[in-house]
Amino acid sequence: MSQTHYTEVLVIGAGMAGLAAAKDLHQQGKQVLVIDKARGLGGRLANRRMDGAIAEHGAQFVTARTERFQALVKDWEVRGFAEEWFRSGGDSGEEYPHYRGLPTMSAMAKQIATDLDYTLGKRAVSVTMSGKGWETKLESGESIASESILITSPVPQTLALLEAGRIAMTSKDEALLTNIEYEPCITVMATLHSEPEIPSPGGLKMSVGSIAWLADNQQKGVSEKPAITLQANAEYSRENWDRDRTEVGQELLTMAEHLLGASVADFQVHAWLYSKPVATQEKPYLVISDVPKMVLAGDAFGGPRVEGAVLSGWAAAEEMLA
Questions:
Q1: Which of 10, 109, 288, 309 is placed for a possible disulfide with 17 were both Cys, Cβ 3.0 to 4.6 Å?
Q2: Domain ranges of the chain
């Protein structure tokens, strides 16, 4: 027999946008439940353990350019959950701090999730209008009834949810969502027999060739044992998406051989289909329905950085409280 749960506000997606919105809603007295199909919080703030080593295979750092997000990162820093990793300049040439999470990037997500009600490993398969609210059906056979809903999953996944529930949208909104594109990213995590020769501070951004980013997780302070993270650029990831993952991983490691200066002990591959949006929408969220309330948010609306996702979540929460 299927079981139905109730919450005032349901948030689909426990990435940074969903958690940031849920936190604001919770602090304003709303009953909020966050669900996510993944086993961990934070979306692309992810890491993996390999033979006693740890490799971060999602977002490698955060930057803070807006006042409220700067204050949040400062709070994490003071409480020992983040620290400045390095400084680098943007197009203006001005250098600004890049922060890493302590002990890993996922610590940032866990801090936002403090005091929140969330359930992981729950995949939503459809959202339908039900009376004066929404019914979200899960792959497990369970259902969640809510007065309002915020969806922060990647837009193609969100569209599939809405289509399964036959949710009507304006032609303008449908066109906007259908045209949102993401860059894929094939990521290799490898343990090494010795420390790599990646220069300080342990992160190497590359603009030539198929490799976009190479990080030394030991030098970064993430892993006690030598381990690297290699992220392919969007073009390579797209062209090689359907190939055998082991072959692709080996090919990328061979490309990076001259940069490592150490032999590979073992490796794993993770492929992000929705690594980051190609372009950001003008507004930080999208209202699909005013009554009952349904709002979409995430990095496709707020921007491709972690900060953009958080800003989108905050803006969406404000809209839902209005």
A1: 309
A2: 4-37+121-180+279-321, 47-109+181-277
What tens digit of pLDDT does each residue of 191-230 get?
999 999 999 999 999 988 999 999 999 999 999 999 999 9
* Rounded distance between C-alpha atoms, residue 214 and residue 256, angstroms: 9
Read off the pTM. Answer: 0.95
The architecture that CATH gives domain 47-109+181-277 is Alpha-Beta Complex (3.90)
Q: In CATH terms, are 4-37+121-180+279-321 and 47-109+181-277 the same topology?
A: no
Return the HEC string of the chain: CCCEEEEEEEEECCCHHHHHHHHHHHHCCCCEEEEECCCCCCCCCCEEEECCEEEECCCCCECCCCHHHHHHHHHHHHCCCEEEEEEEECCCCCEEEEEEECCCCHHHHHHHCCCCEEEECCCEEEEEEECCEEEEEECCCCEEEEEEEEECCCHHHHHHHHHHCCCCCCHHHHHHHHCCCEEEEEEEEEEECCCCCCCCCCEEECCCCCEEEEEEHHHHCCCCCCEEEEEECHHHHHHCCCCCHHHHHHHHHHHCHHHHCCCEEEEEEEEEEEEEECCCCCCCCEEEECCCCEEECCHHHHCCCHHHHHHHHHHHHHHHHC
